[in-house]
Each structure stands twice: as structure tokens, then as C-alpha cells.
Amino acid sequence: MLPWHNAVKHNCNWKYQVGETCDFTCKDGYTYHSGSESRTCTASGDWSGSPYKCKGCPIGPMLPWHNAVKHNCTWRYQVGETCNFTCKEGYTYSNGDASRTCQDGGSWSGAPYKCSSSEGGWLWG
């Protein structure tokens, strides 16, 4: 019955009683995805409705190149959170976006940030 890690339950406490109703909301930075906003403990010990789920970006923006560094963001990524990127020492920017933002649908804006060896060519770290 517990909500996903990015949702909060209200108006109910453990040990749940038959007929008790719990309400759910999303934590700041997360948006509603699916499930019942209110669930009631039934006589059979089950809960009415379906699990309340909120979404953010479950994984960080991909860093396919081991020569880039991510800044100013931390896991669990929230909707609207922006990660910034720079190249490690000895590498130079090649392509992609230096800032990427967690979007409502759980994806990241922009293209992966890539750096190449200052001496030319790609290094796969």
C-alpha cells in the first residue's frame, strides 16, 4: 500500500484500520503519473484503487563518455532539475548540451554532452 518513493501519504497512520482512507500527493518536483489519489482499507485487508505513482527522472542524464563530468544535480532527479556538464582535464567539448533538464515525462532535454581528447580522436575511457 505504501506509495512510491516520490509520493507522500496523508491522513492515515500505521496500523491501518478497516475503513481508513489514505490520501496521496507527489513530493515537490514530481508530477502525478497514475493511481488512486485516495485508497481505503477494505474488510478483506486489501486496499481499494491502485498504487499512487508520481514521476520524475528515474535515471540521470546519460554520460556515454567517461570524459565528461556532471554538476549541480543529484539522484533522485526531480522534474525541472537541471544538470550541467563540463569536460575532464585534457578533453575538449565535442557536441551535445552543457545543460539538460528533467522533463515532465521522465526524459531529459537536449543531447548527451560529449568531450574528445585534446589530442584528437575519441577516447572510450
From TrEMBL:
**UniProt superkingdom:** Eukaryota
Task: Please give the name of this protein.
Answer: Complement factor B-like
Q: What is the lineage of its organism?
A: Eukaryota, Metazoa, Chordata, Cephalochordata, Leptocardii
Q: Does the keyword Iron apply?
A: no
Q: Does the keyword Glycoprotein apply?
A: yes
Q: Which UniProt keywords apply?
A: Disulfide bond, Glycoprotein, Repeat, Sushi
**UniProt domain Sushi: residue ranges:** 1-54, 55-117
State which gene encodes it: LOC118429735
What PANTHER family has UniProt attached to this entry? COMPLEMENT COMPONENT-RELATED SUSHI DOMAIN-CONTAINING, SUSHI, VON WILLEBRAND FACTOR TYPE A, EGF AND PENTRAXIN DOMAIN-CONTAINING PROTEIN 1
